[in-house]
Amino acid sequence: MGSAPTTHHNIVVLESVFSPVPEFKLPNGLTHTLTSYPRTQPTEVAERIKNATILITTTIALPAEVLSENVSPHLQFIAVMAVGTDTINLDACRKRGIQVCNSVNANASSVSEHAIGLYFAARRKLIETHVALRANEWPRRGTLMNMLEDKTGTMPLTCEEEVMGLIGYGFIGKKIGHIARMLGMKVLVADRRGAKTIREGYTSFEEVLKQSSVVVLIIPRTPDSINLISTSELKVMRPQAVLVNVSRGGIVDEAALVQALRENWIAGAAVDVYATEPAGPETSPLATEDTKDLNLTLSPHSAWVSDTTMQNLQRMVGENVEGFCAGKLPAAHIVV
C-alpha cells in the first residue's frame, strides 16, 4: 500500500537572514507549520530538517548524508532561495524523488550591474585611488594619475576600446553583454572549452581569452568548471586584461590569479565569489595581507543584493512552495 497523501507540511527555513520568507497560501485542505532559523551551521542541519517535508535554503551545503531517509525521512521538496544549486547533492534528491526548484534569474539585473561595476573598479583602480586619497597621498604627490597606469605604463582603456569576453551566456550573461555593447564595447561570447565545432555567434574559448581585454565569468559551478581559469588560461590573456568573476567560487584558481596579478600576466581582477565562503585571509589567497598592493577588487558575494532581487526571491519561493503543494510547479524553476 502507498503512503497516505500529505495533508500537513512542516516547512523549515534554514537561512532567513538572506531574505524574508513570504506568507504561504496553500491549497484548501492543506495546513502547515513554519519554522525559521536566521542562520544554520552545517552541524545543525540534520537536527533541524529531521521532520521537514518542505525545506527552504540558500547557501548551506546539503550533502547526500543529510538528504538520506535516515536523516530527513519526510523531506519531499526543496525550494532554493537563490539561483545556484551547487551546494545541494542533486543526485541524492533524484534517487529519493525529492523535487528541487530554484529562483531562476531572480538576481539577473543586480548581478549584471555589479559585474559592470567591478569592471570599472578594476579598470579605473577606484579602490586603490580611494585609499590613497584618504591617506593624504594626493597632496603629498601632487597627482595620483599615475596610479591608473598598469605595470607596463599604459593608461586605462575606455569602453570603446574594450573587448569583453563572456564565458557564460545565459540570461545574466546576455544582460551583461547588452550593457557592455551599450557602453561601446565589442562583445565576444565563448563557446564551451574544447568544442570541436563553434556555434554561430560564438567564438572559441581559447580565442576569447586571447582577444578580450575584459573577461567576465558567469557560469554555474560543476565538476567541469572547477578551476576553468587557472595558470595556462591566465597566461594567454592580454597583459591589459581585467578578469571579473560573478559566477561561483572555485571556477577561478585563486592562487593562480594572485600569481597572474603579481607577475603582470593580466592588469587586474575583480571577484565577488570564492572557493570557500565566507571568505577571509584564512580561507582565500585573494584576501591575504600580501595582496593589498595588487589591482584586485573584492566584494563579499553581494552581486545579487538589491531590492528587486529580494522581491523576486520572495515571490518565486512563494510560487514554488505553493506550486509544489498544488501539484503545479513552475516549469522554468524546476531543477530536479
Automatic annotation (TrEMBL):
<keyword id="KW-0520">NAD</keyword>
<dbReference type="Pfam" id="PF00389">
    <property type="entry name" value="2-Hacid_dh"/>
</dbReference>
<dbReference type="InterPro" id="IPR050418">
    <property type="entry name" value="D-iso_2-hydroxyacid_DH_PdxB"/>
</dbReference>
<dbReference type="Pfam" id="PF02826">
    <property type="entry name" value="2-Hacid_dh_C"/>
</dbReference>
<dbReference type="GO" id="GO:0016616">
    <property type="term" value="F:oxidoreductase activity, acting on the CH-OH group of donors, NAD or NADP as acceptor"/>
</dbReference>
<dbReference type="InterPro" id="IPR006139">
    <property type="entry name" value="D-isomer_2_OHA_DH_cat_dom"/>
</dbReference>
<feature type="domain" description="D-isomer specific 2-hydroxyacid dehydrogenase catalytic">
    <location>
        <begin position="39"/>
        <end position="331"/>
    </location>
</feature>
<dbReference type="InterPro" id="IPR036291">
    <property type="entry name" value="NAD(P)-bd_dom_sf"/>
</dbReference>
<dbReference type="InterPro" id="IPR006140">
    <property type="entry name" value="D-isomer_DH_NAD-bd"/>
</dbReference>
<protein>
    <submittedName>
        <fullName>Glycerate dehydrogenase</fullName>
    </submittedName>
</protein>
<feature type="domain" description="D-isomer specific 2-hydroxyacid dehydrogenase NAD-binding">
    <location>
        <begin position="117"/>
        <end position="303"/>
    </location>
</feature>
<dbReference type="GO" id="GO:0051287">
    <property type="term" value="F:NAD binding"/>
</dbReference>
<comment type="similarity">
    <text>Belongs to the D-isomer specific 2-hydroxyacid dehydrogenase family.</text>
</comment>
<keyword id="KW-0560">Oxidoreductase</keyword>
